[in-house]
């Protein structure tokens, strides 16, 4: 039960970081596009902008796979691969902002 409570808290925190949160910095797709290398690796997943520079080298699926999507929208690639709840929960750590409304695909 303790685990369940902790888990639920984690999920609600995750859901708290919404693309509609006005406090998050907003970026255009073209801002993300200029961070397309292993030295500076930004990506969009579900309209949120992430800086994976610190993580890319440690990706269990290899850095090459992630690098293909550096500077781009990786939503489909991320969802199509077998990513666990733990992998999804890791995303928040790298969140730096959201896309501006005009560039969003989902919300
Ligand atoms: C950008 C596109 C991405 C692609 C194409 C991709 C692909 C993959 C693949 C193929 C594996 C399986 C490796 C294996 O079992 O040998 C994997 C595992 C994993 N990836 Fe990714 N990945 C991406 C992004 C990410 C991101 C952004 C994170 C987290 C910040 C992440 C975290 C993980 C973790 C933790 C695993 C280990 C298995 C798991 O816990 O799900 N990946 N990835």
Automatic annotation (TrEMBL):
**Pfam family membership, one:** Cyt-b5
Q: Keyword Metal-binding: yes or no?
A: yes
Q: Does the keyword Membrane apply?
A: yes
A single cellular component GO annotation: membrane
Q: Which residues cross the membrane?
A: none
Where found in the cell?
Answer: Membrane
| InterPro entries per record | Cyt_B5-like_heme/steroid-bd, Cyt_B5-like_heme/steroid_sf, Cyt_B5_heme-BS, Cytochrome_b5
Q: For this protein, what is any one GO molecular function term?
A: metal ion binding
Q: Which UniProt keywords apply?
A: Heme, Iron, Membrane, Metal-binding, Transmembrane
Q: Where in this chain does the record put each Cytochrome b5 heme-binding domain?
A: 24-100
Specify the domain of life of the species encoding this protein.
Eukaryota
Task: Enumerate the PANTHER family for this protein.
Answer: CYTOCHROME B5
- Please state which protein family the record places this protein in: Belongs to the cytochrome b5 family.
Q: What is this protein called?
A: Delta-5 desaturase 2
């Amino acid at each position: 039960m303790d685990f369940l409570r902790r888990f639920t808290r984690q999920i609600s925190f995750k859901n708290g970081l919404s693309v509609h949160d006005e406090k998050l910095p907003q970026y255009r797709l073209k801002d993300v596009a200029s961070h397309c290398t292993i030295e500076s690796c930004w990506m969009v997943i579900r309209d949120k902008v992430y800086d994976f520079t610190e993580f890319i080298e440690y990706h269990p699926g290899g850095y090459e796979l992630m690098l293909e999507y550096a500077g781009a929208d990786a939503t489909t690639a991320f969802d199509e691969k077998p990513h666990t709840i733990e992998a999804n929960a890791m995303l928040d750590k790298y969140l730096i902002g959201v896309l501006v409304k005009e560039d969003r695909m989902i919300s």
